[in-house]
Amino acid sequence: MTAEGAVPGGPRTACPNCGAAVRPEDNFCEACATELAPAVVSGESPTNAAVCPYCQSEQISADGYCESCGHKVPSSRDHTEIDLGVLAGVTDRGLRHRRNEDAMALATAEPAGGPAAVAVVCDGVSSTRRPDEASLAAAQAAVQVLLARVRTGEDLIEASRDAVSAAQEAVESLGDMPGGSSPWKDPPSATFVSAVMTGEAVTLCWLGDSRAYWLGADAAAQRLTLDDSVAGEMVAAGLMSEADALALPQAHVVTGWVGADSGGAAPHVARFEPPGPGVVLLCSDGLWNYQPEAAKLAELALPLALTNPLGAASALVTFAIESGGADNVTAVLAPFPPRAQEHYDKTLPAMPAVPPDVKELPADEPD
Amino acid sequence: MSQTDFTVEVSQNEYLPEGGDDVNAIVTVTSPDTGPAGGRSEAPAADAGGGIAEIIIIDCSGSMRSPPTKIAEARGATAAVVDVIRDGVAFAVVAGTHEAHPVYPHDGSLAVAGPTTRQQAKQAVSGLTPHGGTAIGQWLRLAYSMFSAHPASLRHAILLTDGRNEHETPEDLGAAISLCEGMFSCDCRGVGTDWEVAELRRISSALLGTVDIVPDPGGLAADFTAMMEAAMGKNVADVSLRVWTPQHATVRFVKQVAPTVEDLTARRTQSGPQAGDYPTGAWGAGESRDYHLCVRVVPAAVGQEMLAARVSLVTATPSGSDVRGQAMVRAVWTDDEALSTRINPNVAHYTGQAELAQVIQEGLEARKQGDEETATAKLGRAVALAEQSNNEDTARLLAKVVDVVDAATGTVRLKKRVDDADEMALDTRSTRTVRTRK
Predict the structure, then answer these.
(1) Which of A46, A148, A171, A196 has its CA 20 to 30 A from that of A72?
(2) CA–CA min distance B162, chain A (Å)
(3) Chain A interface, mutation test: which of B18, B250, B304, B323, most A Cβ atoms within 10 Å?
(4) What is the number of structural domains in chain A?
(5) Model's pTM, two decimal places?
């Protein structure tokens, strides 16, 4: 659960494809058009552990099971850290779920108006089919739309809506597989929250109960999104307090998502102008279930997040795991105002040497 | 040959509560919908290698004389079945008494089916006359030696008897059955009501065939022809279910549950350090069978996932085996009771169908022993299970043995007078299951 597993490279001065000199603010190599700062998505082409942590066998099947003891071995998707310098995120399987159905996508851009940061967090809805693929497909599709639009300086509210449409399409197309059979019951679906941060404002867009928070350096913190959930709707309707609503048995049933059966639900879009320096946090309910209060989250993340977003995101994820880790947990932190981007070598997903659920170790040992 | 052409599908609830260790799954195997699907004049599929060999074993013991129609119908049925054998298929007819004799060809070889050989076979069969006793083990041994001298890869026998295996010990029969396992499959038929269901079931079960009663000798020809047509439709030989399990796991049982219940658990042959093969015999085109697999694993912590079994369909090849289809049986430990307490409907259905077969057999046995109380309880339970699962054929057969007061609760009264043939039909057909609607 530490940041040590992350493998960010140093700032880059040459195109990795043709070797031509590049400037930090370039989005593409001017010589060969290679994308210099592509979006990085957790869980893309995941790899499995080479050695089974339960029985030490080195015979691991292509589908990720130990050929000796049968255990599903850790996958790089179980725990991924992405550090783009400008922003960073950590996602983890937690302690109680068999796989990580959260996904995050991070990107940086250097449009004419100054540096920008893009982040998407999606949480696959567990009661549906292939939620892990749904969250990944949604995050991948959305970040591409947002990155392209922010580079060309287009309207970010419109871009955010289009990103949700792209995510919706990508998740819907999962439902066709395999064999194009009749429409599934419980088609793949995922929650969605995105943030595009420029030097002026943060454009937020969401469906479901993944959240965005503003954690101000001056300790003024606030939640920026309203949940599409049974609890969220009770609170929004003024029927009960948040604490009471969250105690409802159905509190966490999401009422908005991307997926074939979303009924074309319109995403919420908001523009937030930060009052000063601070950090935007995007997270899945695996984090905020343990701490929904913006001020308390700010205490956990600040001041580290202002200068070391990866370290602070790790701290938030570790907090959720140590609080019980009942769900997958994802935290992405983007300091405001966004710094100028540096070209990093592709950030590699980190594989925990020992999964948190190996019995021999107490849960807090890996730190 | 190595195309992944069989489909293997798993139906299960993979979620187990903390500490749960039994993983149940229904595995549906379907063969490819191609091949010579019963076309009479076609050659057997290339898959069949050395082709098809058939031996028809006819009881010629003295009891076949009464009523006189019995031997006449048996001759007629054998002649009819010879007509169904496809050109080019190797075949022979054997007469069984307290010994066994080749009827056609006389020298104990197999003939190649064609107009001439069919005519000769029918000629030879018409001369069959009943004499002597019954030693079925001897019949099987002769068929064994005839098949083993022939290269055909699909080897199948039809065995007809009308009486008990009186002229050898059950051990003799058992030894002969063991010898024949894997050499050929055998469909068994009892004509009349003087034979023993358990005896023929022992043979058909071990030799991966069917067993049934033909109460009226007049029904033999139609039954034989249907059996032979089914045999001619087989195009993949020696198919096994290979079950890989994790270390320290045990296979509690492997049962075929559709179209009939057949416990394969004891039939395992080790095929790797953590894998065993269970024989399923020969398959025809587009055939579908269901298996109930139960594996006991070492429980893992909540949140972990384990591959509880990898089920493959394998066919024998000269160099070893070919994997023709595969599926996974998984286990996921959860503290969400809504998930772990959910019972998979297919597992529930086939658990009920297996119990149905069992309580019918136990109920009939108790009835035979004069234990009416047990018989009433068991057969009542059977009526309730048949009702719940919409197994109408079995419900109909049960209604000939018991008076049903209330099917839903399984309240029944034993009938005072039961036709032997009805009781034996219920017994032989007790293992036939129905599938759930998809």
Answers:
(1) A171
(2) 51
(3) B304
(4) 1
(5) 0.78
Q: Is residue B37 in some structural domain?
A: no
Give pLDDT tens digits for B55-94. Answer: 999 999 999 998 888 999 999 999 999 999 999 999 999 9
Closest residue in chain A to residue B329, using alpha carbons only:
A70
Which residues of chain A neighbour B301 with C-beta distances below 8 Å?
357, 359
Q: What is the pLDDT of residues B138-156, one digit of tens each?
A: 999 999 999 999 999 999 9
Q: Looking at the structure, do residues B125 and B213 belong to the same domain, yes or no?
A: yes
Domain presence at residue B38: no
Tell me: cis bond preceding A267? Omega within 30 of 0 counts.
Answer: no
**Hey, is the C-beta of B120 within 8 angstroms of any chain A C-beta?**
no
Q: Which of B300, B302, B307 lies nearest to residue A96, judging by beta carbons?
A: B302
Residues A280, A275: Cα–Cα separation, whole Å:
12
CB A160 within 8 A of CB A196: yes
**Domain enclosing residue A305, as ranges:** 76-336
pLDDT tens-digit readout, B31-58: 988 754 333 333 444 444 469 999 999 9
Regarding whether B150 and B213 lie in a shared domain, the answer is yes
For residue A133, report the phi and psi dihedrals to the nearest 5 degrees: -75, -35
**Enclosing domain of residue B190:** 46-232
Give the pLDDT confidence of B396-421 residue by residue, as tens digits: 999 999 999 999 999 999 999 999 99
Residue B41 lies in a domain: no
Confirm if B159 and B184 have CB atoms less than 8 A apart.
no
Identity of the residue in B247, B333, B334 whose CB atom sits nearest the CB atom of A69: B247
Write out chain A residues lying below 8 Å of B308, CB-based: 70
Cβ neighbour number for residue B251 with a 10 Å cutoff: 17
- Nearest CB among B303, B328, B332 relative to A95 is that of B303
| Residues B307, A97: C-beta atoms closer than 8 Å | no
Predicted complex: ipTM over 0.90: no
B328: domain CATH number is: 2.60.40.3670
Contact A70 B304 (CB under 8 A): no
CATH number at residue A162: 3.60.40.10
Q: What is the 8-class DSSP label of residue A118?
A: E
Whether A209 is covered by a domain: the verdict is yes
Residue type, A289: N
Which of A72, A81, A73 has its CA nearest to residue A49? Answer: A73
